[in-house]
Amino acid sequence: MAVTLADVAVRAGVSAATVSRVLNGNYPVAGATRNRVLRAVEELEYVVNGPASALAAATSDLVGVLVNDIADPFFGIMAGAVQSEIGEPTADRGGPKLAVVCNTGGSPERELTFLTHLQRQRAGAVVLTGGALEDEAHRTALAGRLGRLEAAGARVVLCGRPPLEGSDFPAVTFDNREGARQLTAHLLELGHRRLGYLAGPQARTTTRHRLEGHREALAAAGLAGDASRLTVRGDYGRSAGYAGALELLSREPGLTAIVAANDTVALGACAALRDRGVRIPDDVSVTGFDDLPFAVDATPALTTVRLPLHEAGVRAGRLALGRETPPAGGVVTCEGELMVRASSAGPRRG
């Protein structure tokens, strides 16, 4: 027997009207109440009927693209590439599709909510970009939402994040671990031995993989002993890089290099060093990650790892529309490329 809106209301302990308001998003509802309703939807596996125009077909022409922050070029480039790819009509698959970019702000709750809305709209495909949250409860809830989307006929593709454990959704991933290892190895080869690391937020796969690559290179050089003391955590923003660089300088006055979690963090670190009168790279070398468009125009130009963000987005778009068959195992791994520029040099002697 199909689960009804009334069933959800009973499970959540609210009125049917409140359930409708939460699912429609057209009326303010208290956060705690909203969470109870969404939890009931999840537990009962309630599927909301989409608009009448979408009910005529198994899925609509809508493609959902989930990003952490559309203002961040890392996500903007991938989302733009997905949109460009799905916007191209093909002889065998009809006209262009409509991309709806969903900005989660890094919130796991918002990610799940957007997926519920996309299922309601009978999205033809969903592309999730960026690193995944390393939380078992969220991973289980995410797998459930994506599984129901797939069962309803939607194609699900992961872009820039590792495969979802226990699922077979195709994934276009970046080798963040190897890219970070190459960056740190580059600095070690230049002669640096006092390296600080500005890490991203905890419980994110991208953060963990990049930090693991950095520490792998340190361990190979026999320098792993101080890795924890010389690691400062923050978010992926400029202000985190600024504050983190000052913290590293206070922890290690003899610091000669800073490895930043991404290019934006690296720019913040560079600003902090300049404000302290520290020259780059004469006194301290700085590296980033991603090779966002501004990296080459920074002063000095930023040494970083170039990720093929546009190409990954195009590939994800093709997979989402069935224009490309997933490879064996369902995982496409995109390698990074070390871009050596003026922000890194050998440590000053004497």
Automatic annotation (TrEMBL):
Q: Which GO terms describe its molecular function?
A: DNA-binding transcription factor activity; transcription cis-regulatory region binding
Protein name per the record: Transcriptional regulator, LacI family
The record's listing under SUPFAM superfamilies reads: lambda repressor-like DNA-binding domains, Periplasmic binding protein-like I
Classification of source organism: Bacteria, Bacillati, Actinomycetota, Actinomycetes, Kitasatosporales
Q: Which InterPro entries match?
A: HTH_LacI, LacI/GalR-like_sensor, Lambda_DNA-bd_dom_sf, Peripla_BP_I
Q: Which PROSITE patterns match?
A: HTH_LACI_1, HTH_LACI_2
Keywords (A to Z) from UniProt: DNA-binding, Transcription, Transcription regulation
A Pfam family of this chain: Peripla_BP_3
Organism, as annotated: Streptomyces zhaozhouensis
Pinpoint the HTH lacI-type domain residues.
3-57
